[in-house]
Protein: Putative plant transposon protein domain-containing protein
Organism: Trifolium subterraneum
Amino acid sequence: MAPRKAVNKGKKKQTTGGSSSRVNFDATRFLGPLQFALFRDLAKRTIWGENVYRLTRTGDFERFTEMIEERGWVDLARPADAINFDLVREFYANAMPLDDEDPVTFKTMVRGREIRFDRDSINDFLGQPSQLPPDTYCAFTMSVAQGNWDVAALTQSLLRPGHQLIWNTQKTRPVRAKKDDLTIYSQLLLHFTLHNVMPRSHTSDGTMKALQFMYYMQNNLEIDIARVIASEMRDMVVTGLHTTKMKNNAALGFPGLIMGLIYEQTRMTFPPEINLTLKEFDDEEARRVCKYRHTTIFIDPAGGQSSAPPPTFPNTFPSTGYPPMDSTTFHNMVTYNWDLHDAGFRAMQAVHQSIYNTQVLQPVMSPDQFRSYVQWPEDRPFIPGGGSSSGAGTNVGGGTDTDIDDDTTLREMMNRNPVGNRDGNNNEDIEMDDEEEATASGSDDE
């Protein structure tokens, strides 16, 4: 038997250390390396699942079931229950803005397919429970923006007799209520709110925003549930990028809703791996979770026991010095700011286009054409109790369309300029290709 040949190790190809450290990502799943890096970071964060509410119409909590059905929130209360963690994390990772300063576009990508989670998309998915126009805020959203809580109404509607809201250390504003201070029915509303509407893993108390939502829900007041959820999802997307009320390691919510949105908009076949099955919440579970853990007995100074203590804190929110803001004024104020942003965007776009035109020898707008194109809002809306400029009371910032079609109108206005190009040719239009056009126009979709 012949001896084995010696192996020439000197000719073996050596691998470089740099190749193993190079970051590779799947372009069919992620918009870029930043999104892939975020996807890996999201593996450290908990996914906070909704509950699937299946309470009977004849049990102790029949009013809850009736309320869900009357509001058209059945799909919200009973989301898809089979959850794949990778799909949920892809959803949140690709929803991150490409630049830290960019706004959330309410669009993301899962397995190469675009998914929208704006107010209209969520409202359509839930069966259009809200019939409000897309640019109109509901009563609940306006009340949260104003932050002028009706403490007496919240206390009477949600809390057990004799129990109070918890105030800040300066005793100037309420901040939350303990779960055990809520009535049994209010505890069920809190449970639903913190799992399916405003996901929070801390369920032993409710913030003022959660309590306000419960109050509006219980008293059949106006709530645009799709806008509330879209706002919550946006805050989760920017957690860690911008300052929000959520912690940087806050749990990722709405996995059932996300699985439903993915399937509704793509009809894709899901991976076979199921990492979580959402918990069913029936009457038995409701009785186990919603109960009083402590019995509070108040001592009457005159002797004996009393079911209600004297109020320790004021029962009204301190006055801000301004009268309550009606819906029209609130709408004018918000849309005026939108108009300012739109005008600023058009101005930046026009400046960029002008700089580009000087490079390709196209005409530049005159000052009058520039002012006509930007259409900067002139007057501020009137705010009761606050300052405003001339034209007070006018519905400035009404959100009306100016019929300006970004690139097309901008280039047409420039080409009408009688001033010739540098090379002596008048209005010689040089076409952009599609990629350059898209770069020049930008996008302001929400």
Q: What stands out?
A: The chain has two domains: 33-306, 327-432. The mean pLDDT is 79. The two ends are 77 Å apart (CA to CA). The first strand starts at residue 51 and ends at 53.
